[in-house]
Amino acid sequence: MASAYAVAVHDLLVHLGVPESAFTGGDITVHSPIDGGTIGAVHATPLAEVAPLIERAHRAHLAWRQIPGPRRGELVRLFGEELRAHKADLGRLVTLENGKILSEGLGEVQEMIDICDFAVGLSRQLHGLTIASERPGHAMRETWHPLGVVGVISAFNFPVAVWAWNSALALVCGDAVVWKPSEITPLTALACGALLAKAAQRFGDDYPTDLSVLLIGASALGEALVDHPQVPLISATGSTRMGRLVAPKVAARLGRTILELGGNNAGIVCPSADLDLAVRAIAFAAIGTAGQRCTTLRRVIVHESIAADLIGRLAAAYASIRVGNPLEAGTLVGPLIHGAAQEAMETALARAKADGGIVHGGERVMLPGSEGGCYVRPALVEMPAQTAVVAEETFAPILYAVTYRSLEEAIALQNAVPQGLSSSIFTNDLREAETFLSAAGSDCGIANVNIGPSGAEIGGAFGGEKDTGGGRESGSDAWKGYMRRATNTVNYSGALPLAQGVSFEL
Ligand code: UN1
């Protein structure tokens, strides 16, 4: 059945520059989670075409690597301009295809713009070190060179931003990009391709065709990408299960990976915390994006002396929150991506109950006119302990609450899960905050004080430890992952002194 939004999606795609033939008459049906109806039918990339496409992208890289970095930055600057001009349309399309509320759909496009700005500046700063040589008349330095084709595998939950994080950096670094988006969100991927093509057209003749390539379809395409020897770097975002499949395959051919896998992010709420602030931060982090961010807050670890107060306030917030159509102002929780996500949520809640958990919310919400969408009220679950189900990442809006007595115990609980992406502490006590951020504190790639674990900005490196995969993307020096480093020693003397005092007289 066609979605009530099929026409709107059609018009947005055309306006964004996607030819109608690309999203009609194809073999992969696309659904809007808002009402479950169809909004497009895209054409799967034939498996046999993956290798030729990668080879074409590789050739594009060979030309692109000769273009000076600042000129490469100009492409990304133009792309950022296209994104600014089309923010409203692309943000709306994200909401229609993914179901996140409009403000978050627009926020995702803003995140793309932010990484473009960051990458443009970076295009003039891809510099290495000058190193003191122990030998007279010798200069030592390191240089950073383009790497090759970067394979990007992304998930449904950030259907456009994660590609942009990777692409903006890869493009200024002189790489080509082959992107395998989630099969569930190909329309926004097509729109990104069209906007980059607009930028490329304005860029000029030195834009090599096939610098950015899209693979639309099922996981077999991603596997072909992962296995291809001409893809020196695979940057993959998704489940830990996916990462465990990808990592050994890339390692077997001695390629590189940047992995952004599951999160099971916790927030510790201390007795000194500003509870008004903490409740708002926890609500956004746990409920926002319907619990479908890898940085979503999934566990709150609260001091026993304030647990009743915090849980009471959270339960009231949970009960009052508006679940509904993500396009409507006032809605804070849109639909889950599909029925399987809702089933996973039900299963987890049943397990939590069996473990002695007290569940607030979590029930299905029927939306008149959108019966095909999977809407749920977010769940807050008071747990007697951090049981097995709490240690798992269920990609749905479930927040488990456990209590603690000492900060040491709280940090141990926070770290006692396989994942290590993001974390927070709510405290006004300097000692507690600094202990949490210290070597003996949070074991996550992101550790925050008095803000939630989600909604990271572009300037910082994004990623996490343990089952999260260890990769870092977007800010800080993440660009180095997209380049190869060469150490250069130049002898400008007439002699040939050897390092370490080695003597080797002929
Ligand atoms: C993700 O959920 O895959 O920090 C990425 C955040 C966003 C990115 C999340 N900036 O929540």
UniProtKB/TrEMBL annotation:
It comes from the Bacteria. The active site is at 260. Its EC number is 1.2.1.3. The keyword Methyltransferase does not apply. PROSITE patterns: ALDEHYDE_DEHYDR_GLU. GO terms for molecular function: aldehyde dehydrogenase (NAD+) activity. InterPro entries: Ald_DH/histidinol_DH (IPR016161), Ald_DH_C (IPR016163), Ald_DH_CS_GLU (IPR029510), Ald_DH_N (IPR016162), Aldehyde_DH_dom (IPR015590), ALDH7A1-like (IPR044638). Keywords: NAD, Oxidoreductase. Coiled coil: none annotated. Residues 27-485 form the Aldehyde dehydrogenase domain. Homotetramer. Belongs to the aldehyde dehydrogenase family. This is aldehyde dehydrogenase (NAD(+)). It comes from Rhodospirillum rubrum (strain ATCC 11170 / ATH 1.1.1 / DSM 467 / LMG 4362 / NCIMB 8255 / S1).
